[in-house]
Amino acid sequence: MTRISLTVNGRPYQGEVEPRTLLVTFLRDHLHLTGTHIGCDTSQCGACVVHLDGISVKACTVLALQADGATVTTIEGLAQDATLHPLQEGFWAEHGLQCGFCTPGMIMSTFDLLQQNPDPSDEEIRHALEGNLCRCTGYENIVRAVRYAAQQMQSNQNA
Amino acid sequence: MDPATTYTLIVNGRPCEVAVTPKTTLMQVLREQLHLTGTKDGCSTGHCGSCMVLKDGEPVRSCLVPMRRADNATITTIEGVRQPDGSLHPVQQAYLDQGATQCGFCTPGFIMSSIALLAQKPEPTLEEIYAAHRWNVCRCTGYNAIIRAVQQVAGQPLPPPPPVKAPLQVVSQYVPRPDGEAKVDGTGRYAADLFVEGMLHAKTLRSSEAHARIVQIDVTAARNLPGVVAVLTADDIPGRKDCGVHEIDWPVLCYDKVRYVGDALALVIAESEAVAEAALGLIDVTYEPLPLVTGPKEAAAPGAPQIHEGRAQGNVLAHYNLELGDVEAGFVAADLIVEREYRTQTVEHAFIEPEAGLAAPDANGRITVYGGGQIPFNDRKQIAATLNLPEERIRVVNCLIGGAFGGKEDVSVQILAALGAQATGRPVKMVFSREESLRVHPKRHATIIRMKTGAKHDGTLVAHEVEIYGDGGAYASLSGHVMLRATTHAAGPYEVANARVNTYAMYTNNVPSGAFRGFGVTQSGFAMECQLDVLAEELGLAPLEIRRKNILAYGKQTLAGQVLTESCGLGECLELVAAEVARRPVVASDGDKRRAWGLACAYKNTGYGSGAYDAAGAEVELFADGRAIVRAGAAEIGQGLPTVLAQIAAEELGVPYNQVEVLLADTDLTPDGQATTASRQTYVTGNAVRHACQELRTLLRGTAAEMLDAAPDSLIFAEGCVRSSTSSAPLSEVVRVARHEGRTPKVAYQYVAPKVAQYQHVAFGFAAQAVLVEVDIKTGETRVLDVIAASDVGRAINPLGLQGQIEGSISMGLGMALQENFIMEAGQVKTDTLHKCKLPQINQTPNVTLFFVEDETQEGPYGAKGVGELNSIPTAPAIINAIYNATGIRCYSLPAHKTWLKAALAATPCP
């Protein structure tokens, strides 16, 4: 067992993990942050996307040990003081979710996209979501949701 | 913390290894590591014996055994005592047969002690039974049934059970409890037995001051302790900051001031109980002490510090003034007037299961609260208000409840655990330590009762003036209702034409007072029964004569002016007791021993009364395999409600008793049954089940009539069949066909009791008791040898349960008369362990003879009325009267403890 320290959603955590423990396992089973989902264990679905030091990663491809000393943000850390992030609002308002299982990963991936590219085209949104699978929506409303969020974030910035 | 060591145990035949500190107790290992929760934790201090297990064949209280003394031990717990073929151990079976398990919390510990005894001594004497169970405490049964259970296994002769008037197929038959098996084999789950993945533990910081303004609560250090997930104060409460069953005056977490030492200041939620406990010590509270109010008279004094500021009535929590006839004229007409002052003490319920609960957010964001409250729907209402959620977002589910007696009517752990679950989004478990339980929950009111009574030479009561001061403590709880009942029953079960009662419930800085079996009638009834003996002596009458002269009977009226027209069997009770006493001559003086009988009567209302909305719902459903289920929102606290409801459903539907399942107290699945209080559930929920079954029969008659080609009204439901005069079909088949037709055989019925006038009631239970005491005039010690108890219960639906209710009630009365006293000094709790409660122990069990009088009440189910509280009322005054008859010393201030009596006898020696 190895001791790790990391910051998750702004709170410091410590834990004892085996070297082979995945970050997603640590988040879900040790910290009970179950908003990060496991859909495949093989890095196909993207339901487990979180941010590691600000960059989106599939938490099932990262060892918990690799996150030692890092800052992690999960879907639970996105809303500020009970106000939804524009992306969360967008997925809701534009029907970007149905069963909701892929949604946290979708949001965390597109969050990263909007940080790098605040005004993406539909093509760029689709490209950014190549690592995330959705079986319900057909992606159309997910693209609308991301556009909605981009507009909201820009108008918030201009305001 | 000490480092963990690995220990090896063989538990119920299976080897296991645990890694714990050497000081970890065997009980903790069994419960928390191995989840063998049949071993109960009632006090953690060795005073209750609920954690008794066999260690290498010897009975030990596992809470007193550190693991360093248990390494390599062979342990047998309650889960390991079934026979190899899976059937119950004879001791378990005997506990079921004799009604020796009620709430069931002490039962595993008792059974382990009994098994150890019978292994050593297959035919134990009574003294040996006492010795073997000296470390076990039971608060429900009064021990009589436990002794009978041991004697049954030993093959010793048992007294025949009290006869009942008219047994039906199931009603009025001796049947085992539906929940009995789970109580004798350790599988029954109480709230503290729940373990949920990922759960947190909550602890509350209690006030060190009995009355103070809160200047500051600094929780910074506690929040920073590793393992602490949240520390909540009043500022973190999203909704209503105060709670209460009726009056909302009790802060969930205090914000401006503290009013007693049980007040909650902060709630710590942490990964373990140990961390939560450690965090409590890091919270810094700055108080500005305020002057104390330590008693009801002090609270009423001019200039007394006000406990709830801004109340127009000051410290007066409730005041009742009952007037009947012309009391002044009554005293003028009296030939003799006596005036005395009586005092009753604060009494602790001492249910053996401390308050426990677990609140868990559901998958859909609702919060489910598992607990053990007497009013689950009211708990839900209070939790929802404090969490600022609609009531439907909260589900309250009762686990088995390890005794309550009125002490679990107020919401306690449930609301705090729910707050924790809401704040953390995780399951939160909370269990009060015994010390916390004693410190926090409401008690029986201490009272000061001034009674002036006028009588004619022949003993007829003509005037009665009573003033009652009750110590309500810091918050209202049920004080208003309790003191109302003290008022309406202030003349006991006797007619007095002219009366005045003034009752004051006062706020003080003591632990709040609230509901407790007897509910105010215990106190005023005690005073009245003593007063009658005082009067009788001065008039030269026998105690029996003055009672015969005045008891309530058909055509007589209560203090509230209610004329009794039915179901009043007190006269028969009194004569049964008198005749039995006459059959038992007593040697009054024998060395240092003085013996005498004492007499007392009582009556106790069934239901809320006084015009309150008194209702209960029940739902009954039949399944195609022939089973029935009763779903009712009422709480079972050990009294045996599931037995009664299953009996009624079985009787009405013709389903075998053991094919009826009873689901109680789940706010999602059962209709509201209101409170388990006021000896009301057999009456109200019993009626709801009866009516639901009748409607269910009507629903099925159509289907059955077609199947049998008979007139619907001619069909009879009996013995698992529906019968016409010529043919018959199994009920299961009728149910199957009805379901196929789309007629679901499920009926919910809301029973509403008849509304009555102010101070009046739908029915009363009546009791007469004679008690034989033996006082040692050298030591002052009083032993209660015999109790003869006759009770008019309307109908003995569940005779085994009824017997248990009466025997347990007598035990509580005995404790209150002779030894129990919850002591507070300057607002600080001195009675802070179960041992200090001085509960009656098994070697104090009197020989009890019962008579059931069944003077039916028309509206009750099969004529039944309430029995849960009735017999706890007359025992204490009967004992006090008996002590007077034996020694010439009268106790005016309970308890008649041996040190007091010894001193009194030294001052006034008896011949």
Automatic annotation (TrEMBL), chain A:
<keyword id="KW-0001">2Fe-2S</keyword>
<keyword id="KW-0408">Iron</keyword>
<keyword id="KW-0411">Iron-sulfur</keyword>
<dbReference type="InterPro" id="IPR012675">
    <property type="entry name" value="Beta-grasp_dom_sf"/>
</dbReference>
<dbReference type="InterPro" id="IPR036884">
    <property type="entry name" value="2Fe-2S-bd_dom_sf"/>
</dbReference>
<keyword id="KW-0560">Oxidoreductase</keyword>
<dbReference type="InterPro" id="IPR001041">
    <property type="entry name" value="2Fe-2S_ferredoxin-type"/>
</dbReference>
<dbReference type="GO" id="GO:0016491">
    <property type="term" value="F:oxidoreductase activity"/>
</dbReference>
<protein>
    <submittedName>
        <fullName>Carbon monoxide dehydrogenase</fullName>
    </submittedName>
</protein>
<dbReference type="GO" id="GO:0046872">
    <property type="term" value="F:metal ion binding"/>
</dbReference>
<comment type="pathway">
    <text>Alkaloid degradation; nicotine degradation.</text>
</comment>
<dbReference type="Pfam" id="PF00111">
    <property type="entry name" value="Fer2"/>
</dbReference>
<dbReference type="InterPro" id="IPR036010">
    <property type="entry name" value="2Fe-2S_ferredoxin-like_sf"/>
</dbReference>
<dbReference type="InterPro" id="IPR002888">
    <property type="entry name" value="2Fe-2S-bd"/>
</dbReference>
<dbReference type="InterPro" id="IPR051452">
    <property type="entry name" value="Diverse_Oxidoreductases"/>
</dbReference>
<dbReference type="GO" id="GO:0051537">
    <property type="term" value="F:2 iron, 2 sulfur cluster binding"/>
</dbReference>
<keyword id="KW-0479">Metal-binding</keyword>
<feature type="domain" description="2Fe-2S ferredoxin-type">
    <location>
        <begin position="2"/>
        <end position="78"/>
    </location>
</feature>
<dbReference type="Pfam" id="PF01799">
    <property type="entry name" value="Fer2_2"/>
</dbReference>
TrEMBL record, chain B:
<dbReference type="InterPro" id="IPR036010">
    <property type="entry name" value="2Fe-2S_ferredoxin-like_sf"/>
</dbReference>
<dbReference type="GO" id="GO:0016491">
    <property type="term" value="F:oxidoreductase activity"/>
</dbReference>
<dbReference type="InterPro" id="IPR046867">
    <property type="entry name" value="AldOxase/xan_DH_MoCoBD2"/>
</dbReference>
<dbReference type="GO" id="GO:0005506">
    <property type="term" value="F:iron ion binding"/>
</dbReference>
<dbReference type="InterPro" id="IPR036884">
    <property type="entry name" value="2Fe-2S-bd_dom_sf"/>
</dbReference>
<dbReference type="Pfam" id="PF02738">
    <property type="entry name" value="MoCoBD_1"/>
</dbReference>
<dbReference type="InterPro" id="IPR016208">
    <property type="entry name" value="Ald_Oxase/xanthine_DH-like"/>
</dbReference>
<dbReference type="Pfam" id="PF01799">
    <property type="entry name" value="Fer2_2"/>
</dbReference>
<protein>
    <recommendedName>
        <fullName>2Fe-2S ferredoxin-type domain-containing protein</fullName>
    </recommendedName>
</protein>
<dbReference type="InterPro" id="IPR000674">
    <property type="entry name" value="Ald_Oxase/Xan_DH_a/b"/>
</dbReference>
<dbReference type="InterPro" id="IPR037165">
    <property type="entry name" value="AldOxase/xan_DH_Mopterin-bd_sf"/>
</dbReference>
<feature type="domain" description="2Fe-2S ferredoxin-type">
    <location>
        <begin position="5"/>
        <end position="81"/>
    </location>
</feature>
<dbReference type="InterPro" id="IPR008274">
    <property type="entry name" value="AldOxase/xan_DH_MoCoBD1"/>
</dbReference>
<keyword id="KW-0560">Oxidoreductase</keyword>
<comment type="similarity">
    <text>Belongs to the xanthine dehydrogenase family.</text>
</comment>
<dbReference type="InterPro" id="IPR036856">
    <property type="entry name" value="Ald_Oxase/Xan_DH_a/b_sf"/>
</dbReference>
<dbReference type="InterPro" id="IPR001041">
    <property type="entry name" value="2Fe-2S_ferredoxin-type"/>
</dbReference>
<keyword id="KW-0479">Metal-binding</keyword>
<keyword id="KW-0408">Iron</keyword>
<dbReference type="Pfam" id="PF00111">
    <property type="entry name" value="Fer2"/>
</dbReference>
<dbReference type="InterPro" id="IPR006058">
    <property type="entry name" value="2Fe2S_fd_BS"/>
</dbReference>
<dbReference type="Pfam" id="PF20256">
    <property type="entry name" value="MoCoBD_2"/>
</dbReference>
